[in-house]
Write a structure and sequence with these properties.
The protein has about 150 residues and is α+β, with helices and mostly antiparallel strands. It has five helices and eight strands; from the N terminus they run E-H-H-H-E-E-E-H-E-H-E-E-E. Strands 1, 2, 3, 4, 5, 6, 7 and 8 form an eight-stranded mixed sheet that branches. Strand 2 (about 55-65) and strand 3 form a beta hairpin. The longest helix has 16 residues, at about 10-25. Keywords: Transferase.
Length: about 150
């Protein structure tokens, strides 16, 4: 078990994992427009462009050579993706990936919180990680989310 910062050559595999997990657990909570909007958001060309510009960073959880979980941040402190394969749920992988981001944020002088726009499915996961709701659930372009924050100490 190992968390690594993902490189450009890992992005396609990461996005395949994200899409598979999204389809199984997230898409039932979204409209057709929301599903399409998410699919566009994670399109390889769009993500790689942002990755190359340094706008997105990815970390992966590797278990026996298999990518089992992914976390991505926009900037340093906004989680824009956190997905774990079904067979690996409830094993602390999301927590470990979040810990990696948290440690990076703690080293930044100007970062006091980590934010996320949580899907309905993941709200309880983020609550268990210590996030609090900072606004009510919203829907934008078919994407349902609850704005949340984790305040660094």
């Amino acid at each position: 078990m190992n968390i690594i910062k993902l490189k450009k050559e890992n992005i396609e595999n990461s996005l395949d994992l994200v899409w598979a997990v999204f389809q199984e657990f997230e898409s039932p909570d979204y409209s057709t427009d929301g599903i399409e909007e998410f699919r566009k958001f994670i399109s390889y060309n769009s993500i790689v462009e942002k990755f190359d510009k340094g706008e997105l960073c990815f970390w992966g959880y590797i278990d026996n050579g298999d990518l089992t979980g992914v976390i991505a941040t926009r900037g340093v402190n906004h989680i824009c993706m956190l997905f774990v394969k079904k067979d690996y749920h409830r094993r602390g992988i999301a927590k470990s990936l979040f810990q990696t981001v948290k440690e990076i944020c703690k080293k930044q002088d100007n970062v006091s919180k980590i934010t996320v726009n949580s899907s309905p499915y993941a709200v309880e996961v983020y609550h268990r990680l210590g996030f609090v709701d900072i606004d009510k659930e919203q829907t934008v372009n078919g994407i349902r989310f609850t704005p949340m924050a984790y305040f660094l100490k």
